[in-house]
Structure formats: C-alpha cells, structure tokens
Design brief:
The complex is a heterodimer of chains A (332) and B (379). Chain A is mostly helical. In chain A, 74% of the residues lie in helices and 1% in strands. Chain B has 13 helices and 9 strands. The chains are: A mainly alpha (332), B alpha+beta (379). Chain B: The chain crosses the membrane at residues 12-35, 179-200, 207-225, 245-264, 285-308, 346-365.
C-alpha cells in the first residue's frame, strides 16, 4: 500500500479508534458494569467515578510506560551487559571501556563547553533582544524575524551555516561570508570547520542562532510582567536606563531566566543533528549525543552506546529533579 | 514607560540601530540560502550571494578559442563566440594567466609570428595568422566579464521534479509529510483525555502522575532508541511508518499532557460544576465543554509537534531507516551534504524546500506557538 494512503488511513483509524475507545469504555462503565440505577445506584456511581480517571488516562499511561519508562530501564540494563556474550552481565565494563576512549573524553569536554556557552549566549542575546524590541514601534516584526530560526530544522540550519563557513581556494571569490570578510581584511582563506578548537564555537553559533528567539519570547513576556511601580520608583530615584535594566528588571525576572537557561541546557544535551550534518564529530567536534549514535548505529556496540545514553540521562537528572520539585510546589 | 523622566533621544536611536543590527544578523544566514536557491551553480560558485543583485564582474575560467578556419585575403581566419548562449559584456581580457586584464575589449593582441587575436565586447573573437592553424595549439583567452543579475527557477524544477539532479528530494518531501501529519494528529486526543483526568478528576495518585509527566518531559529520547527498536522488530513494525508514528506519538505525549493540563486547570470551575449539577457525565463535559474551550492549547501543541516531527532527524533515521525511498527531508539533506557538499544550487534549494513548510506554519500560527511556549515554560 502506498505510504501516503497508509498515512491517511492511519489518521482516520487512529482518531476513530481513540474516540471509539473513550466513548464505548465510558458507556460500558456507566451502563453495564456499574449502572447508576437499581438498589446500588449510589455505590455504583462512586465506583464508576473511581475507575473513570484510569479509563481516561489508560492509553496515555500505556504509551508513556512502554515508550519512555521501560526503555530507560532497558537501556540501563543494556549498558551493564555485553551483547557479544549473549547479553551476559558485565558490570561496569562498558563504562570502563568508554572512559578509556579518547573520542568519549573529547565528547565530554565539548559537551561541557556547549553547556556553558550556548545557554549563556542564547539567554544573553534573548534578553538583549527582548529588552530592545519591547521599546520600539516595529518591535513585533523584529521579534518575528529573530524568532524565525526556531521553525528551521537543525539540519536545515546546518546547511544555512555551512554556506557561511564555505571555503574557496585563495584567489577565487569567496562565497562564504566569513571567508569573504576574512580575506577582505587581508587573511588567507580558512577551512573554518577544521580548525580546532574554534570549530566547536562555530557549531555552537548555529544553536545560539536558533535558541535566541525562544529565550527572547519567554523573557519578553516576563519583562512585561514586571510591575510598573518598581520601574517608576527607580526613575523617580534617578536611576539611568542601564541601572533600571540590571538592578530592577533582571533581578525580578531571575526565575524566568533560570527556566530559559535550563530549557536550553536540555536542548544542548540532546544536540546531535548539527554536529552530524556539519562535521560528523571530526576535527575534535564530537559531542555525547552524536557519539552515542555512532556507537549504537554505526559500530553496533549496544553496551557502550547505552552507557553513553545513560551518561546523558545522568546529566539531565538534576534538571529533572528540580523541575519535578517545582511542579509539586505549584500543585499544592 | 522606562524613561518618562528625561527621555534620551540619543538612546532611542541607539536602540533602533541595535535592533536593526540584530535583525540583519539573524536574517542574513537564511537570506543567503534563499537567494542562492535562485542562482545557477556557476553563479553561486563564482561570487557571494550578496553580490547577486548587482551586475557582476568576474574572471571567467580560461577558454581555448576554436572553430573552423577560413582563408581570407591570404590569411587564415578563425572566428566565433567565446561564450555562446550567455549574455555578458567583456570588460578586459588577456592571453596569459599572468596578465588576465592586458587588453581592452576590441583591442588586437599580437601573439607573435604574425598571429593576431581580437576580442570584442560581445565575446566575438577573431584569430588571424599567416599559416593554417591546423594541428596547432590555439591560444587561451582569460576574460573578465560582467553579466546582469539573473535569477532562475530551474533549481526548484530540478530538485522537485527530476529524479536525478535532486536525488529524490520530491519523494522525501512526501515522506516527511507522511511522517509528520499522523504523528501530529494522533497524540492530541490521547493526551487531551489524560490531561482532563489530571486536571479535573479527583483520584489517589494524581499528584504523583503529574510529577511523572513533568519528569518524562526531560527524559532524552536517546535512551529509548534501542529498546524500542527491539520491540518494533519483534511485533513487525521495525523500520516502517507505523513504527515512526508510534514513536513520535509517544515522544510528544509528555509535552502534550503537560501543556493541555496546565491550560485545562485554568478553565473556570463554575462551568464544569454547573454541567455536573445538570447531570452531564465526564465524557460529555470533556467533549462538549473542555475540548472546544481548549482549542488554543490544542493548536499550540499541534504546532510544536508538527514542527518537531517535520524537522526531526534522529527518530526518522532510527525508526524509518535510511533506505532511499523512505528517506525524510532532513536525512536527505545530510546525505546531500556528504555526497554533493559542493553543489550549492542543489543543497540550497533542497534545504529551502525542507524549511519552507515549517516557516509557513510558523508565520501563520506564530500567536499559538508563543502562547504554547509561555504556558510550557513560565509555569
């Protein structure tokens, strides 16, 4: 069957089955299992209401358990076993093997760099853009344009930036902007993406370019939420615009800055497409997610691949705990 | 509001200029790709895209003159057009790579032994000499020519409709749509029911489940790949669209539940309680009241999920595979970067084809996207 047709049928069937499941399971509960009539009507209604939430959540819980909870546990198990020995338990052997690989150490080093540079720069640029665009009449147009890269895939962005870093031989016209500027200033054309360690920063630029819009949108909303009295009071006290920004506004939106920072941190930990498309981890640009893909699907070494996935999970865990604690505080 | 007291006009100007700079900086990369996709391969590799709008002057690669010679008044003459089929004006030319701008157009160069070469502005050359050129090496011409700005749709035609040059980008476009649309539609309903239960039904363990959803929100999907691929292989949907839809549905679920629950919790309690008092069942309340009222949140999630599934590379690589007929656009682009890294006309056009749909969705539905972002992170 043609995939497009199959896709349409899936949409119709998927939606139909969902509606059917929810409708008939509720009907069954109310009409057959615990009907709200007869001698036990009251008790039946209570019982039905105890079961109903689980009917509503059933499919979602099933999907989450099968596709997210189980795999985390399974990956943990894979990381402790050796596939070549028929899945025998090998303790921390995979981790030890991984820790001895120079490419893994390189990935860890680069990931740490990414974790510092990308969230910091995206948040800084986002804050700057939010503050500036809020003050001018055509700010919304400017915001749209800065926000736009959010819609572009990491791979598409990689193509866009590869054109910027393109190199032509000396003497020919440079078609990459970076080399065009560089040669106009008197330098010799460079193959930027092969120059360690600066190529790492050139890759980070791509993600900063994408994530700044996100930071800007969130921070702009936070800036607007600042009570006007605080700003007015500062003006009355003779604060200049810079003081107002750094001493009045930024401290008030600190919680939002932290949220933006951690959200971008999560994106950074999973970044894979940009490195794959631009350098594929060559020339000292490996990162954890690409290293993991390499181990799992090119070397087919499930043990070490899973071990590196667990490392990513460990790096995410502090944010996970922090998010859960915040959510629980809000629930109360 | 900021500077009611003592508005500084200098600072206002600085703000405008700073924003203009930011906007240019952010637009410039995409503009480069966009403009390049309308230029021919020769143009792209000849000059930067920012020069595309001006009349371009550039050094053409050396061309060896050639053609049939005729005898005219005791001399052997060879005439022809140096650049057939091209609309350009010669600005200067030379016969040696050491001095490529030695002669003006129309001038006659003396090549020794009585041989002369003339090249006029339009590219017509005349080579004349006392002996036949038969069997001789003819001279090469280095021309500096200018051509008017020129844009073409041929790249798009190539990439989308011809199988060879575009290497199947048209097919990949269909594949990506086939992945993205069901993956966007299916999770919505499943998540909406769950979100309603978590927002408006009382049952033991509710807080725990909400916390679990928040936790799953950040679990990297990298961890899910191998175990899921194993399951998919066992039940026979490894490397199929079915498996990809299922994976996308599941990976989008935490965000969907989280967004929708946050939105539904904020709906007015009165409406729901009144409906309960009037004897409506939870199913009816959900379908007739909650679902229509939650439209903005549903739209937000749908946009997120669509952008994410359309732009995704990892899930498609793992669950759909890298076979040529099932390759999605992002996968195709990565392949093109590897195999045709220098063919910018194909790369730029394919990349633009792949980002055109998300960009259209983005500009059409930006309002909902922003709303979703705010609901998802500020809470």
């Amino acid at each position: 069957m043609h995939p497009v047709l199959q896709g349409m049928i899936t949409v119709v069937l998927g939606v139909g089955i969902c509606i059917g499941y929810f409708y008939f399971s509720n009907q069954f509960l109310d009409k057959v299992l615990y009907p709200a009539r007869g001698p036990n009507a009251g008790r039946n209604i209570n019982r039905a209401n105890m079961i109903r939430p689980w009917l509503f959540m059933g499919p979602a819980i099933f999907v989450l358990a099968l596709y997210l909870v189980y795999p985390v546990l399974a990956t943990l198990w894979f990381s402790l076993t050796d596939r070549d020995q028929g899945g025998a338990f090998v303790g921390l052997a995979n981790y030890r093997q991984m820790a001895a690989e120079p490419k893994f150490l390189e990935a860890i080093r680069n990931n740490m760099l990414w974790l510092v540079v990308v969230p910091a720069m995206s948040t800084a640029f986002g804050l700057l853009a939010a503050q500036l665009t809020d003050r001018i009449s055509w700010g919304n147009v400017a915001k749209s344009i800065i926000f736009m890269p959010m819609a572009i895939s990491f791979v598409g962005a990689s193509v866009i930036w590869k054109l910027i870093y393109d190199t032509r031989p000396a003497g020919a016209d440079q078609i990459g902007v970076l080399n065009a500027i560089w040669t106009a200033l008197g330098g010799a054309p460079q193959t930027w993406l092969t120059i360690e360690p600066w190529n790492n920063f050139l890759l980070m630029v791509v993600l900063i370019w994408i994530q700044t819009g996100f930071a800007m949108v969130i921070l702009s909303a936070a800036l607007r939420g600042i009570p006007e009295e605080t700003v007015e009071a500062a003006i009355v006290d003779g604060a200049n615009p810079f003081q107002i920004f750094f001493k009045i506004k930024v401290p008030q939106i600190m919680p939002t800055i932290v949220v933006v920072w951690t959200t971008i941190t999560l994106v950074v930990l999973k970044v894979f497409d940009i490195v794959l498309a631009m350098t594929n981890g060559q020339w000292g640009t490996q990162v954890l997610a690409n290293y993991m893909y390499d181990r799992m699907f090119r070397a087919f070494d499930w043990g070490v691949g899973s071990a590196s996935a667990i490392v990513i999970m460990l790096l995410v865990t502090p944010i996970l705990v922090w998010n859960v604690r915040n959510a629980r505080r809000e629930m109360r | 509001m900021d500077n009611i007291a003592g508005r500084k006009s200098g600072l206002t100007w600085a703000v405008h200029i700073a924003v203009v700079l930011l906007v240019i900086l952010w637009l410039f990369p995409t503009a480069g790709l966009f403009v390049s996709s309308f230029r021919t391969g020769d143009q792209i590799s000849g000059s930067g895209w920012w020069a595309a709008f001006s009349t371009q002057q550039r050094n053409e690669p050396a061309v060896r003159v050639g053609g049939d010679e005729v005898q005219q008044g005791g001399r052997f003459v060879l005439q022809g057009d140096l650049f057939p089929n091209r609309d350009m004006t010669i600005k200067a030319w030379g016969t040696s790579s050491r001095d490529v701008e030695a002669y003006e157009p129309g001038a006659t160069a003396d090549l020794g032994d009585g041989v002369t070469l003339t090249l006029d502005e339009g590219g017509t050359f005349t080579l004349a000499g006392p002996e036949s050129f038969e069997g001789q090496r003819l001279p090469r011409v280095f021309a500096t020519a200018s051509s008017p700005p020129e844009f073409t749709l041929a790249n798009y035609e190539n990439v989308l409709f011809s199988g060879t040059a575009g290497a199947g980008v048209g097919q990949s476009f269909i594949n990506t749509a086939t992945v993205a649309i069901p993956s966007t539609v299916i999770p919505i309903l499943i998540a909406a029911f769950a979100a309603y239960a978590l927002a408006w039904m009382d049952f033991p363990g509710r807080a725990l489940l909400v916390a679990a959803v928040v936790a799953l929100l950040v679990v990297p999907l990298q961890l899910a790949l191998i175990p899921l691929l194993q399951i998919h292989n066992v039940i026979g949907i490894g490397k199929t669209y079915m498996g990809t839809w299922a994976a996308h549905t599941a990976f989008g679920m935490p965000l969907a539940i989280y967004l929708l629950r946050n939105y539904m919790v904020g709906l007015p309690r009165d409406i729901i309680e009144n409906a309960r008092v009037d004897g409506a069942t939870d199913f009816q309340i959900f379908v007739k009241i909650i679902l229509p009222l939650s439209f903005p949140a549903l739209a937000s999630f749908a946009i997120f999920q669509f952008l994410w599934t359309w732009n995704d590379l990892l899930v498609a690589l793992v669950f759909l595979g890298t076979d040529d007929e099932r390759l999605v656009l992002t996968g195709r682009l990565v392949n093109l970067l590897g195999s045709r890294g220098g063919d910018w006309e194909i790369l730029a056009t394919s990349a633009f084809v792949s980002i055109a749909v998300p960009l259209a969705v983005f500009f059409a539905m930006q309002r909902y996207l922003v709303r979703g972002l705010l609901a998802g992170s500020v809470k």
